[in-house]
Amino acid sequence: MSTVLQNLIDQPYQHGFVTDIESDTVPKGLSEEVIRQISLKKDEPDWLLEFRLAAYRHWLTLSEPAWPNVKYPPIDYQDIIYYSAPKPKNKLASMDEVDPELRRTFEKLGVPLHEQAALAGVAVDVIFDSVSVTTTYKQKLADVGIVFCSFSEAVREHPELVRRYLGTVVPAADNFYAALNSAVFTDGSFVYIPRGVKCPMELSTYFRINTQESGQFERTLIVAEEGAEVSYLEGCTAPRFDTNQLHAAVVELVALDNAYIKYSTVQNWYAGDANGVGGIYNFVTKRGLCQGVNSRISWTQVETGSAITWKYPSCVLLGENSVGEFYSVALTNHRQQADTGTKMIHVGRNTRSTIVSKGISAGESNNSYRGLVKIGPKAAGARNYSQCDSMLIGDRCGANTFPYIDVQNSTARVEHEATTSKIGEDQLFYFASRGIGNEEAVSMIINGFVKDVFTQLPMEFAVEAGRLLGLKLEGSVG
Amino acid sequence: MSQSPGRELLHVDGLTATVAGKTILKGIDLTVRAGEVHAIMGPNGSGKSTLSKVLAGHPAYEVTGGGATFLGANLLDLEPEERARAGFFLSFQYPVEVPGVANGQFLRLVYNTVQGARGREELDPLEFDDFVRDKMKLLEMDPAFLDRSVNEGFSGGEKKRNEILQMALLEPSLAFLDETDSGLDIDALRVVAGGINALRSADNAVVLVTHYQRLLDYVVPDYVHVMEGGRLVKTGGRELALELERRGYDWVAQEARAA
Ligand SMILES: Nc1ncnc2c1ncn2[C@@H]1O[C@H](COP(=O)(O)OP(=O)(O)OP(=O)(O)O)[C@@H](O)[C@H]1O
Ligand SMILES: [Mg+2]
Prior knowledge:
The structure holds two protein chains of two kinds. By secondary structure, chain A is an alpha/beta fold. In chain A, α2 runs antiparallel to α3 (46-60). Chain A has one domain. Chain A has twelve helices and 23 strands. Chain A has helices at 2-9, 32-41, 46-60, 100-109, 114-120, 138-143, 151-157, 159-165, 176-184, 425-432, 438-454, 459-473; strands at 23-25, 84-86, 122-128, 131-135, 147-150, 187-193, 202-208, 218-224, 229-237, 245-247, 250-255, 260-268, 280-290, 296-303, 308-311, 314-317, 323-332, 337-346, 352-361, 366-375, 383-393, 398-407, 413-423. Chain B contains nine helices and twelve strands. Chains A and B meet through α10 and α11 of A and α2, β7 and α3 of B. The complex binds adenosine-5'-triphosphate and magnesium ion. Adenosine-5'-triphosphate (ATP) binds at residues 19-20, 22, 24, 42, 44-50, 60, 93 of chain B.
């Protein structure tokens, strides 16, 4: 029986190929000198170099967090390449100029570039190893005053905006990985939606790690001014490698009065092989600040990849009546480990938050939900609803739920529900006795399980995410 | 119904099976022809449900001897889902709950999968909705059961009705109904029995596992078998069920031991 289930979920990783493009890299290791080199290569202003160096000096005083429910050998931070950019780096006027090898890679991944992008109404800011290669739809967005570009470009073109918001939501000293990212981040995305503008299309960035052993330190900053709205999609895949790769991104969101930011992620990085060799370490700090009244930030994530996931997209609900949401599906298989969840920090009055977490564990994997709901003393009338469901496939995997609730205002209402279920032999036999094979049965049960989260995803993404879960769960039976 | 024997649907020959290292079936012989109704009775734990699961292909049960053919093919060579597609249907004594999966969606997948396998037309969601509502009317089932999760929170009787609804959708050649009557109230028993009878034809057959005569008042058996310690120790006509109801099982066991 467990072999049947195992076969189902042992679908090999389909994005495991390496694109052969010459890379321009900085030597391995981390020092002030390396940081200066990165900053120099990117032609950055002094204030940003200072930001990096301060973060680096602080990072030296920190140690890795030991509390996550994950296990991995010590990381040698001197054995990582902190900067790598694809060559040649001429400016590209159109999609046709994109390196054909690179385009083939994106085609294999099913990235909707070129006409696909136009058809899908998606503007794709493609990140290829740290440096942005091309941006589409920029003009259309620029017409309504929206800035959507690579982080490097934002530093060049809109330094005042970057400087005003960088590090305001996730301070450089926030935690070990955030400090590391602040010191060495190479590129990422920047979005600015001016007052009153509703972004006319979904903004989408595909991240991809390419050079072996190149740590990926993305930095994303999204600012929605008063009354602005934006839906941002982040999709991730990575080629197959046998050495673990560290990924420590930082994402900061700022929503002013009445603004709404919806941030959706589908993550399918290489998870290592069946024996736990290789795979990405995904140690990410994502946080949104609902700064203004009635502002709203919604995180939706579908996490299917990485050897280790350590990630807590959070909301700081400062503005009165502001709303934070977290919808998550985390699937782990083989030896994958995930410790993921959210933090909802209620500061302002009548702030509301919703948490829906669906963990799926298979193989010998370990899947933990960790969530903090904190209601501060001034958060009168605050409300939280949390629902954390775990699904086990087979007998050798684990699921844990660590809810932390800290209520300092007696008028607040906090509700927490949790369930654990298991796809068992008898359920599969029930389907089989009706003519439904195991593969389809598992997929139907899983789709039912994740429904409440998938309905939160933008349409195009829901299809992609469904395909991804399918990939992870399909396979030859018996 | 048994005047001119129909074609052989199921033939079980000396079947033995174990579960969790324990031998439960100790040599089952059973032949079911088209048009027939068989009843299997017998004490708790004698192996009736085990027989149904072995025939349906539950992976936890291991066949250790004997054989079974279904419509001339080796039943034991088929995967469980292939058996279902070939026209073998099991109504479970304890149908499992499948939280999160809408019953209506499940029923449509089941229906279309089996239709597809038989080279017949599949139905789109709207067509299927009309179709399944008709079938539900036959079983006096509230259409609200389409929107709930499969069997989740269904009462005992509601689960059984949902099983027979699936039988009505799949139109199996052989339906093995394991204690479909237990859990049904008096009116429900009549409705469900009516549903089973409506599905009967000269081309299919029903095996009823039951502890009581009352279902057999509605669905009249041609043969009644007594299961005892993993064997079918006695076979008779419909009058055997009445006798069992009066006298219990002890005398059958004694008779079997004496033989
Ligand atoms: N998975 C299993 N593991 C261990 N023992 C089992 C298993 N399945 C069945 N058995 C045992 O096999 C025997 C026959 O069980 P079965 O369910 O077939 O009886 P039954 O005739 O259907 O009884 P009832 O009339 O109570 O439904 C019982 O002793 C039961 O405990
Ligand atoms: Mg039984």
